[in-house]
Design brief:
Length: 184
Amino acid sequence: MMFKPGVIMTKAQQAIACSVLLLMLVGCATPVPDCAGQIESATNQGRLGQALSADVPAACSAEAELAWQTALSEFCSPQTGFDTAYRGQPQATSCRQNAYMNAYSHGRMLFELQTEQAELEQRIAELSRIPDGNTAKQQRELTRLRNRLITIQRDLPEWLTLARLEGFLAPAAVPDQPATTDSQ
């Protein structure tokens, strides 16, 4: 329906024209969703190595996904993987990069060796304090525990050195060297 200047519209035509105009105005007034909160939430989830929540509105999903991916790539660094495992924390399920996984495995091995070493030392001390600790069974157990402790004490420095070489741990402190004097 075309409206021409100077042509008088019927009431029905006026009502239709007003309705169309009103719908156009309402359509223009639809608020654009504020994605700032969703982007901040996605960034925080990425920084913590968490999966992106599924409740992101469609209008914000692209921006939220980008913010999450950026934060996640920073979180999923090899150093974070090593540190997470070295503290005995579970692996972030969102981090699947090989470098992260390898570093996590290295940190996990160190954590487990150090934990086992402490447990063995405690168990050996407990068994050594038993008054009648000379029974054959107790002696065999002490020997088994001591042998395992020797193995860990042999392997642990190598794992620590490798972690230092990879840059995951700070270099070991060098003991003070005695001053050398030149006798010439």
